[in-house]
Structure formats: C-alpha cells, structure tokens
Known about the structure:
This protein is of the alpha+beta class. The chain has 3 domains: 40-124, Helix Hairpins, CATH 1.10.287; 133-248, Immunoglobulin-like; 257-351, Cupredoxins -  blue copper proteins (Immunoglobulin-like). Helix content is 41%, strand content 19%. Helix 7 packs across helix 9. The protein starts with a helix and ends with a helix. Dinuclear copper ion (CUA) binds at residues 139, 142, 182, 217, 219-221, 225, 228. Dinuclear copper ion binds next to loops.
Amino acid sequence: MKSRAKRSGYSLRMPAFGLALLTLLAACGEDHLKTYPQTTFAPVTEFARQSDWLFKYTLVLGVLVGLFVFGLLGYIVWRFRYQPGHPEPEQVHGNARLELLWTFIPALILAAIAVPTVRTIFATQREAPANALTIEVHGWQWWWEYRYAVNGGRDTVVTANEIHVPVGTPVQLRMTSGDVLHSFWIPQMGGKRDVIPNKVNTLNFTPEEPGVYLGQCAEFCGDSHALMKMRMIAHTPEGFQEWLRNEAGPAPTPRDSAVALGKQLVTKGACAGCHVIQYGASRDSATVGRTGPNLTHFGSRRTLAAGILENNAENLAKWLKNPPEVKPGSKMPNLNLKDEEIRFIVAYLQTLQ
Ligand code: CUA
C-alpha cells in the first residue's frame, strides 16, 4: 500500500510540472490580467517591454540548457549503467578536448545572457530626454503624492495615489520619501524604485497604451504597507492635457447649502490641519496643512485611502467615521465626527471634481 502511494506521488510530479508551465504560459493571456492585475507579463511601457523581453529570453535559454544537461545526464546514466560482466567504461578524466569544450560552451551561454542584459540595463537607466514630463513622487505613510509643474513652472498641481501620464511622451519620475523607505512599483509600467528620504531616485519610461494599471508599495514601511496602493492612469495626449488643465484649476465653489456646510466643516475644522484645498484663480490655499493628500480635486479620483476603496459616498463615510479601522496606523485619526457632519463632508468632497 505504502509503495503504491509513493509511486502515485511520483507520477503526479510530471503533470504538476506541466500545469506550472501552462500557468506560466497563460501569464501572457488577457484572463491572467483580470485575475492578477499586478502582473509583470503584460508590459505597457517601452521600459517594461524591454525587461519583459530579457526575462523571457533568459528563461528560454535556461530551459534549453536545462533540457540539454538533464537529457544528456539521463542518457549517460542509462547508457553506462552497471551491468554484470561488462568491462569498465573508458575513463575521460583529464581529457583536454572535453575540458576546453565544457569551459567554452558555458562561457558562450554567459555571453549570450550578459550582452542583452547589459544593453537593457543601459537602455532603461538612460537620462530622460529634454522633452520628458517630470513628475515628483513622494512616498508617505501610507499614500503617494505626485507633483506636476504647470504654467511654465510657476504653479504646481498636487495630487495623490493616482498618477496620470500621457501615452507617447517620455516620463521621468523624481522620487523621494517624506518619512521611511517605500518602494514604487507598478508592474506593468516596469521597474521598481526604492523611495528614500533625503535622496532622489529617478525612473524613466514612455507609456505606450492608455489604461489603468495597478501597483503598490513594495518595501515594508509599517502597519499599512500592504494597503499603500497606487494606480497609473495612462491617457491619450489630449486626455492628459484635459486632466492636467482641470487639476490646475481651483476647487469648485459650493452650489447648495449642504455642500457649503461641508466646506465649512473641512476648511475651518480639524481637516485643514493636514489637507489643502485650493480656491480662487491664483489657487491660494483655503487651508494650510500638507500632512495629508491635497484634496482640491478629490472628487475626480477613482479611489480613496491610497487606492484601497472605490471613491463613493458609502466608502467615504466609512473612511471618515474611523480611518484607522480602514487603514491600520493611519495618520488620519478618528475625529469622532457626527453622522450628520460626515454627510455634509461627503457631499462637499464629492463636488471637488
Ligand atoms: Cu510604503 Cu510599503
């Protein structure tokens, strides 16, 4: 009984290997993207395409070498197995020709890997071209801040968690951290960069396909590290300009009393200690804080609380009721807001398109 179970264990190994290989191949399919939105196997920038190609190329080389080596080994073990009465096979120890051959072949294989690897490193670490769009990225516990220079550098658009980029334009991210180590990682964008206090790291890429791409912090940074998500939204060039123009504008003025009440609660209350909402043509701040995300156009964001909740009235109310419950360790404390106050604040924040 025991030996049979053991045998079936062995016979299961090959199908399991096949299944793993199939899973890997399925990685290229569209369905895979739905199940695993943070896949690295569906590149959408030239940076990601190059590293994806390099990965697959070395994988194929590795598989070929593995098949050759284990095939040869299997053959030799079988061919020269011990058989009673057979003479000892010829001993090849110290055979100069063989020694040269199995030094030369691995050297060739290493060269075949090294040349494209070094070329890809240089290609992906290039300086950004002069026409690149520069976006400043700040990591905070536990959200992302993005800054875009507008109006010839006289003004700055500040937004959070959702990074907007145009397709076809080189983008340069200049990244740093306001507190601890974080790591910026949107797999389909390619690359991954540590975000370090008092140091600026860069990441250059050119988005190629419009879409929404999910990412998350990839360096343990405290309680809510796993909830520190981000999205890259790649627009057509026109769509991007439209987005930027809207972001550069002031927050809309309240049109009804509930919204006006909400505005008063936010801009005159505790929220103002941490959040900025910009009003007026000169975008002068209605509030002063900047510990938390800039909320000027909060209503136009798809998600809230660093991408963990869809941005709708219900989720917003849940968040305002008790932030640390949604995001453990959240720097936004429970302000013990009354349900009525929450209702007004939600109404107001939703108008900030
Ligand atoms: Cu930020 Cu992990």
